[in-house]
């Protein structure tokens, strides 16, 4: 599901709300999660899961083309740990839908 599909679904489920209001709500939620992770905070949504930023230490990587050693700086990466209720619903829910076909590469 894409962000626009989420907004359309929420609009269909909540006809008393205007679509621009729903767009603002969704954007605000995503922005607040992003801001919290940027500050190094953890965001926990009970029954859904927790977002956090994990630190990756600096390391020496390899250039796949030449095999030369390349220094890779340390960084923080976003991490999501699903909550118990979400895991149970996903595991006990209906069979997943067929995956979408991959987009064809643009030809030159």
SSE topology:
Blueprint: H1 3-13, H2 19-39, E1 43-45, E2 49-56, E3 59-62, E4 69-72, E5 75-82, H3 84-92
Antiparallel strand pairs: 1-2, 2-5, 3-4
Family: Belongs to the bacterial histone-like protein family.
Function: This protein is one of the two subunits of integration host factor, a specific DNA-binding protein that functions in genetic recombination as well as in transcriptional and translational control.
Biased composition (Basic and acidic residues): 82-91
Question: Would you give an account of this structure?
Answer:
- It holds the Pfam family Bac_DNA_binding.
- Residues 82-108 are annotated as: Disordered.
- With 108 residues, the chain is an alpha+beta fold.
- The protein has one domain: HU Protein, Chain A (Irregular).
- Helix content is 38%, strand content 25%.
- It has three helices and five strands; from the N terminus they run ααβββββα.
- The protein has helices spanning 3-13, 19-39, 84-92, and strands at 43-45, 49-56, 59-62, 69-72, 75-82.
- The protein has a three-stranded antiparallel sheet.
- Strand 3 (59-62) and strand 4 form a beta hairpin.
- Helix 1 packs across helix 2.
- It is extended.
- The two termini are 30 Å apart.
- The model has no long low-confidence stretch (mean pLDDT 90).
